[in-house]
Each structure stands twice: as C-alpha cells, then as structure tokens.
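hey team, just a heads up i'm posting the complex here instead of the shared drive bc the drive is being weird again. everything in one block, sequence lines first with there labels, then the predicted structure for the whole assembly after. its three chains so it's a bit long, scroll down
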Amino acid sequence: MRWLIPRLLNLDRRIIFLAVGLAILLPIVHPLKLPGLKVTQAVRGVYDRIEALPPGSPLLLSFDFDPASKPELHPMGVAIVRHAFRRDLKVIATSLWITGAGLAEDILQTAGREFNKRYGEDFVFLGWQPQPINVIIGLGQDLYKTFPRDYRGNDTRALPALQQVSSLRDIRYMVDLAAGSPGVEEWIVYGADKYGFKVGGGATAVIEPGLRPFLQTGQLTGLIGAMKGAAEYEALLAQPGTATAGMDALSLGHMLVILLVILSNVVYWISRRLPG
Amino acid sequence: MPFFRRTLPLVIAFVTGVALILQYYIPHEASEEFLTQLNDWLIVIGVFAFLLGIYSLGHVHATRIRRQAAGWGYSVVMFVGIAIGLGTGIASQGEVTTPDGTLSSFGWMYDNMLIPLQGTMFALLGFFVASAAFRAFRARTLEAALLLAAALLVMFGRVPLGEYLWGMLVGVNAPVAMRDIVEWIMNTPNLAARRGVMLGVTLGAIATSLKIIFGIERAYLGGD
Amino acid sequence: MSEFWGMAGAWLAAGLTLSLFSFLYRDNPFYKLTEHLYIGVSIGYGLAITYYKSFLPKVVTPLFVEQHLLIVIPTLLGLLTLTRLIPRVAWLSRISFAFVMGYGAGLAIPLTIASLLLKQIEGTILPLISVEDEQIQTSFIALLDNVNSLLIIVGVLTVLMYFFFSIPHTGSLRVISRIGMYFLMVYFGASFGATVMGRFSLLYGRLFDLYTFSAARYFYATPILLGLLILSLLGLALATRKPSPPMGGE
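-- predicted structure starts here --
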C-alpha cells in the first residue's frame, strides 16, 4: 500500500488525459442512451415565452459566441430557431462576436431548410458590426441606420421580415446565446432595460452561474445553461439533437472527475496519516 | 500646444460624458436623435480602432522575423495564416456562400480551419481541468472543503446519470431530487456571492467612469 | 470538385485538431506551428469581415456613393486613432480616444446604476416584502418561510463586507467577512463544476468531429493522420535525445 500512495499522488497527468479522452470518446463510438434528463424551470422560462408569442411576430436572436463554444451553443441555437419557425415567428438575427457570424448563418440555414423558410421573408441575419455596446444602442435607436445592409448585402429597408421592426422598441422578446462578454449582461443593461423588451438567455456552462442574479430579478425570463440546457430544450421540442447525444459523454466525464477528486483526497488523507 | 495635447482631450471626454448622462434623462426627440447619431459615429470609429490592434500584433511578429529572433519561423506561419484568411475573404468578397448557395472559399476556410482551430484550442482545457482537479483539489481547510463539496454536487447533479443515480439511491419519488439540490446551490449561495461581487464591480465601474469624465483617470490617453 | 474539397477539408480539420492535441504529450513544433496558424487565420478572417461587412457599408458607401457628408467626422476621428502609430503625431489620437472613452463612461453610468445596482438591490429586498391593500408590509411569517431570501441577503452583505478593505478585518467584521468567504467558496465551487461541464462539452465536439473523420467516406483521415503524427513525434524525440554520458566520465 505504501508504495502506491506516492505513485498515485504524483500520477503522470498523461494517464489522466487518456482516461478523460476515453470517457468522452466511448459514448461517441457506442451511444449509451443514459436516462435521467429532466427539464428545469429555468429552461421552461425561455420555451414558454417563445410559445406565447403570436405567429408572425418578430423574435430577435443574438448569436454571441465563437467556434470555441459551438458544441454548447450551436445545438441551443438550432433548437430555438426550430421552435421559432414552428411558431411562424419572424426571426431577426445578429451577432456581437465577429467569429460567430458564420455559425449564426449556418444555424439559420439549417433550420430554415427544414421548415421551408425563405431568407428575407421569414428570417434575416443582420450580421456583425464593431463596438458591441454601440450596436445594441444603435439597434435600439434605429435598426436601418446601424445595419443599412444585412449580412448578405441586401438593403435592410427592402426586407419583408423587417417590416414591423424599425428599432428594439418594436421587439417584445429576444434570446441571446452568449459565451461571455459582450453577451447577456450587455443586452440586459443597454437593450432590454432601456428599450423595454424581455430577454431569455442561453449561456455556456462557464458563464451560466454568473447570470443567475438576472434570472432571480426577472431581467431574464429564463436561462438555458450549457449543453444540458440545450438537451432540455430539445426534449421540450421532442426533437433530440446533438446536445442530447452529447449528454452521455458529459455524464461519464463528470463521473470520472468526481472519482478522481475523491480518490485524490482519500490518498492524500491516507498519506497524512501514514508514519514517515 | 499643451492645450491641444493635454487639455483638449480632457475637455472632450468631459463634455461627451456629461452630454451622454444628461441625454438619458431627456426624453425629447432631439436628444434621441443626438444619441442615434453619436452612437453611429462610435461604430465607424471602431472599424479603424480594430486595425490599430491588428497592426500592433503584426509589428511584433514582423520585428521578430527581421531580427531572426528565436521562433521567427512561427511568425512567418502567422503571416501565412493572415494571408489565407484575408485572401479567401477577398476572393469571396466576405461571403461564406456563393450566390448559388454552395460554400465559398471563405466559407470553406471558416468551416475547415477556423472552427477546428478555435474549437480545439479551448477543448484542450478539458484535459487540464481534470488533471488540475486530481492534483490540486484537496480539502485541506474548511473553505477548500466547501469549494470541493459545491463542485462535486454541481458536477454530479448536472448530468442525467447523476439524476438517475440519485433516484436509485433515495427512490424516484423522493421529495428532493438531485436537480433541486443543484438549483438551490445555484439560486441561493452562488447567486448571493455573485450578486455581491456584481454590486462591488458595478460601484467600481461607476467610480472609474466618473474619474474618466472628470479627467482624474488619464491612462487611456497614453504617455506624453 | 465539391466532394474533393469536402474530403480535403476533413483531412485539414482532422490534421489541425490532432496537431493541437499533440500538446497533451508535450510541447512540440506541430503544436506551435498550428497555434500560430490559428492566430493568423483569425486575424485574416477578422480583417475580411471588417472590410466587407463594416467598412464598405458604414464608411465607403455613405461617403462616396450616398454622399452623407456627416460621415466625414467619425471617419476623421477614426483616422486620428491610427496616428497612434506615428510617434511625432501620436498625440492627435488622444482626441479620438477621449471621445470614445467619454461616450462610453457617460453612457454606462445611468444604465449600470439602473440595471446592475438598483435592480439587483431590488431583487435582494423584494422577496421579503409583500404588498397587500396597496400597503407595503413585512411579514414575520414570510421571513420564516423565506429562508432562502434571508440567506441571499446575508450572502450579499457578507460578500460585500469581505471586499471592503478600507478598515481592518478585526472583531465582528472578521466574522462577517469570513462568512462572506464561505459564500464565495460555494460560488467558486459551483463555477468550477460548471466549468468542467463546459470544457468537456468542447472536448466532446472535437472528438465527435475526429470520430466522424475516421470513417471510410473521409478515407480514414483521423487514424492515418494520428499514426503519422505519432511517428513524427517519435522521430523528433529520437533526433533531439541527449546522448548518455560516457562511463566513468565527468
């Protein structure tokens, strides 16, 4: 036993890397379909709001993330846009992150094809501009001045999907999918609280705990957190996607880390008690 | 000349700052038009400011190549990367799809270079987080034990397997589900601490903004 | 042709991913090369998007096509920012930066007070107060029932006191700030737990793509490239191995 303790305490981290890799890879190669996914009230807060919007009304989406957060927020975005198209809402999208514009376009195209929605009539992607806080204020003051052209170069004044909307004052609800700053907090402070619309949040696991105060005050109607939140939203739509498929890997990965931490503490305390 | 170099910028910061604060409290149409116009100017200025940041980075690497300093070959690779990104962008006029809906060269570069590169850089952290947890996450003190307990409960409860195992342990009809425990941690102690930090940071940000407006904080102006 | 580019893209994506993952073994030239390529490609992408999606529609078109002459002012201010690069006239850039900073500071103050200060304080106190018959009342029963709301108030106040360094943390303040630290530890623990989930999600995404690219339709890109990478790293390790000291030598 004594020879094992120092070896465990100083375990080569590459062994841990291998264990992590296998824990994540195994469910990809052989899906386990582990049970236990339950929908939380925070995710329902976004779903119910979109469900309550009348058909034909505008829904603003902001895709504020980059390719690094794709596995968490891309499935979330696809699920929300699918929901919006099911409800026949007019989707107006933008992105405050320069490298997120391509992902936003991909999400809209993917869901648009499924529901036979037409660009310009049913949905529009405004694109990206620098100075994110000024973009939010600009959209709040005058959408056409801030985005005279959409991401594809069309004149925004000529797009049917934008007919009802000249600024954020014409928006009742938006969902922001964010991986950090600029993101949910900026949309609340410079957008929702100033121009009087409601916000639902979608966030990566890293920033989600920090957004809970906004959920409690009602500044967020709901909060979809991480890949699990995306899987919950897919469950509400009864349309499992990549987020649901990824939950197995997360389950095994988390259990591995929990076991590693417990093992590390047990070994540490044993080593403290051993003489010498 | 000292007026233009030192005093004028401070006057501009003061006048602009006070104007924006007053604008918030004046609901007149002219006030809204003022905000709309000024805000649009900031976006235009932002385009040029972006170039400034890029130049600084490029200059560092160009100097490294010129002096043939250690690792200068990697700086050449960086410029090759810029050429690829910019070149495909110019070839496709900034569009990720062609007019007939297929992927442009810019879109191809985005899908097959930028997404895997950026995704993998951050995915590496998954391995290091597990390794760090094993090596450093030890309950040596009460505070560390609290941190550990919260982390373990959140990790256990936020995956379906954890919910399922809890159900097996206490029964599926138990009054407290695992997600209730996790939600309580998130919505009570986590929220309280985060709000405390938020209030402190906000007060600090307001103080800094006032210092900028009144010319006490001048670091943004650079050296003399 | 598009099938070829699809295959080429898969091989490129798999190769770049594996090169970056090679860092897990040890720092090596493949990783450094790919890291610098990432920086360059990101910058190139950003430059292209900024030019076509921002500079053309917001500066060139309004100025030269639509002839909105008011755009001259922000364009000049923007050009002034670039004078920062020329030491002799760098002071001119202060005018632009002062404008930007003044605007940002003035915009932020009333909005952050409303959203981040007052709303958050309201959210802390409101759960303890009930409004009946247009009169604000505090209910002792509500206090007892609302243990969570009480805990939140305690947590917010103790955390704020923990960060208050203007007076030394002695006596009762020491106890208060200690409680604040306990709340912070739970916050950090919850954040760590959430971070693990986030990082594993990203890892899942990359491994899923690598698994996809290991299929026959991509001509087994992942295993072939992985094999080549391992051989290259082994070769590199052998080539750079230090010779062992001679027997009996110094």
